[in-house]
Amino acid sequence: MKELDLLKKDWKKNNTFEQVSEVDIYKMLHSKSSSIVKWIFIISILEILLWTSISVFFNTDDYLKKIKHEELNLFFEILTYFNYAVILVFIYLFYKNYVSISTTVSTKQLMKDILKTRKTVQCYVWYNLGMVAFSMMMGFFMAFTYNPEVVTLIDKMNNNTKIMVLTIGIFILLIATFMGLFWLFYRLVYGILLRRLYANYKELKKIDL
């Protein structure tokens, strides 16, 4: 935020133009905040397109046919539609936040909109992480319960406690690893934008004092 630092220095030197400097700083923070929220909106759309493209290569119907449990199709269809509906609601909220921040003319309102946007993004990230965890647990549950090959393997391991414990430990480690990777992805993508947005909020707070 080099431009903002230069404006603040100039503001301190020229007290006779204090009011104009406040307006200039507000305009810069307003523009930066609007740009950040716009990128959050764009990235959320790109993200849903990415996961939709990936899902094409993982056909649940074929897997259910393979393990002869096609009756679970309805459950996964409902889950998929529910997930897309929730994500579309979040995308709508991101767009709404972008419009609100872009059109606001009040410092106090801009600060409120920034906090509201941060909270929406945080809820979105936690929802996605929750869905990732749920999906992975469902996948392991289906494998252990319905997949004949895995069930046969488990029956063989029942007589060997060490192998059973080791297998469970590996599955827990896999879940933790994938969750960590997804958390890191969201931390990098949305975390950077949220930190910049909150930095704008703190600067606005100084102006509003």
Written description of the protein model:
With 209 residues, the protein is an all-alpha fold. It has one domain. Helix content is 89%, strand content 0%. The protein has helices spanning 2-13, 18-56, 60-66, 73-103, 107-145, 148-157, 161-208. The radius of gyration is 24 Å and the shape is elongated. Mean pLDDT is 79; it is low at 15-20.
Brief write-up:
The chain is mainly alpha-helical and 209 residues long.
Which helices and strands appear, and what pairs or packs with what?
Blueprint: H1 2-13, H2 18-56, H3 60-66, H4 73-103, H5 107-145, H6 148-157, H7 161-208
Comma- or semicolon-separated keywords:
single chain, 209 residues, mainly alpha, elongated, transmembrane, transmembrane helix
Q: Compute the number of helices.
A: 7
Structural class: mainly alpha
CA radius of gyration: 24 Å
Beta content = under 5%
- Residues in helices, as a percent range: over 70%
Order of SSEs: HHHHHHH
N-to-C span: 21 Å
**What is the count of distinct domains?**
1
Keywords: Membrane, Transmembrane, Transmembrane helix
